[in-house]
Design brief:
The protein has about 425 residues and is an all-alpha fold. It is built from 18 helices and no strands. Helix 1 packs parallel to helix 7, helix 3 runs antiparallel to helix 17 and helix 13 packs antiparallel against helix 14.
């Protein structure tokens, strides 16, 4: 396997790989979230006019959910090819598929022009985009993890994770500008195409630097090793030898997906159900919380490089539980210090930044992408579909429901932290099952 020492310093080439993946990660997350911001407008363009508002809302939400349902298929089906053919060609495929699907969405005719064929084509493209996104996220962690020396593994993965939230910030800023630049009528008529065009153009940008990025040293060493008769059967190896890793990976993904879905995406809408706050101040507070979540991701990534992962996860989970409860008690008291409370919540939620480094170490090199893709996308598909509906309904009954759910996830984090704290040293990251 890779011959250079795991204690080597990070080279300029390694740093460029991390920057490259971080740049793509921000773009890809922006690409996937586009529809979330203009769901009602796109729904009006692709479904019959005069539809009951509640039905139209469900149609729009359904189109967003389809993206989550498609992710497991992309991650599992194409993820295995990354373990067989290489990380770099699969990375190229995920970028190209994302860019082309977005460009096609921007050029689609509306319902008024093509009738039922228009929403059918949009749904198909949304599925394709979701599959590409499901492949990219685990691949980004694997790509940086297999390039950098092990002593930088956690911080490199945390940079890639933090970049996803940079994409969220860019989405917020872009759609604030778009809504001030165009009226609702203009957006419904033609303006909805602009975000897809911008996203497609941004997605093609990384290809300008493609030739400067090489295949991961771990995969190159794997091809020289010749993993035997099972080298082309990563799914078979995964479920025969790595069942325990799959379970642990799915639990860790539950932590990542729940915190990201609730704190980053759903919390503003959930809070508005029971609390009344100044919309401009609250919008700025949410963006500030995401900024501090980016800092938190990198902070926890650095700390877990030097401290026992389990201990850091336990402490971080306790802080998250305390802060989410304090956040909602503060809302109930009036929300006078919402800026500070949101910033603290975002920073505490940054514990998600340290988890990917453990995911990549759970699986041997020759099934790593398959294993992470399965755990991440299956779990995220379930959470992404059930949590918006379930937590939204629960919040109408109990205003503290989001806090209680995140506290529950925090307790799972504590349990996993105690598990890893008492776990012997991981096998070498270059481990292979023959």
């Amino acid at each position: 396997m890779p011959s250079r020492s795991q204690y080597a310093l990070m080279s300029t080439k390694d740093k460029n790989v991390v920057l490259f993946i971080s740049f793509i990660s921000a773009i890809i997350f922006f690409d996937f979230l586009i529809y979330l911001y203009i769901a009602d407008i796109v729904s009006a363009a692709f479904f019959p006019t005069g539809t009951d508002p509640k039905v139209a809302k469900l149609q729009g939400l359904g189109l967003f959910v389809i993206g989550y349902l498609a992710r497991p298929f992309g991650g599992i089906i194409f993820g295995r090819y990354g373990d067989i053919k290489g990380r770099k060609p699969i990375l190229l495929m995920s970028i190209l598929v994302t860019a082309c699907s977005l460009l096609a969405m921007a050029c689609l005719p509306t319902y008024a022009q093509w009738g039922a064929a228009a929403p059918a084509l949009f749904i198909l493209l949304r599925i394709i985009q979701g599959m590409a996104f499901g492949l990219y996220v685990p691949l980004s962690w694997v790509f940086v993890a297999e390039h950098v020396p092990r002593q930088y593994l956690s911080v490199a993965c945390s940079y890639a994770t933090a970049s996803f939230f940079v994409g969220v910030l860019f989405s917020n800023a872009f759609f604030m500008w778009l809504s001030s630049f165009m009226t609702t009528t203009e957006l419904t008529d033609y303006g909805w195409r602009l975000p897809f065009l911008v996203a497609a153009a941004l997605s093609f940008l990384p290809l300008l630097f493609w030739r400067f990025i090489g295949e991961t040293p771990f995969f190159l060493a794997l091809t020289k090793l010749n993993a035997g008769k099972n080298s082309g059967k990563p799914l078979t190896i995964l479920f025969k030898h790595c069942k325990h890793s799959v379970f642990v990976g799915m639990v860790l993904t539950l932590v990542i997906s729940s915190i990201t879905s609730v704190v980053v995406l759903l919390l503003p809408d959930l809070i508005e159900i029971n609390f009344t706050l100044d919309s401009d101040l609250f919008g700025f507070s949410h963006s500030l919380g995401i900024v501090f979540m980016i800092f938190g991701c990198i902070f926890y990534g650095i700390i877990s490089n030097h401290e026992n992962f389990g201990k850091v996860l336990v402490i971080g989970s306790i802080l998250l539980i305390a802060q989410i409860l304090a956040f909602f008690y503060h809302l109930q008291a009036g929300g006078d210090y919402i800026l500070i409370m949101y910033a603290l919540l975002g920073f505490c939620a940054g514990i998600v930044g340290m988890v990917p480094a453990i995911l990549v170490q759970l699986f041997p090199t020759n099934v790593r992408l398959t294993g992470i893709s399965f755990c991440y996308n299956v779990t995220y598909g379930i959470v992404g579909v059930l949590i918006p509906f379930g937590l939204g309904y629960a919040t109408t009954l109990v205003s503290f429901s989001p806090a209680l759910y995140i506290a529950f996830i925090g307790f799972i984090g504590i349990i996993m932290g105690l598990y890893f704290y008492n776990l012997p040293e991981f096998k070498k990251i270059d481990h292979v099952i023959l």
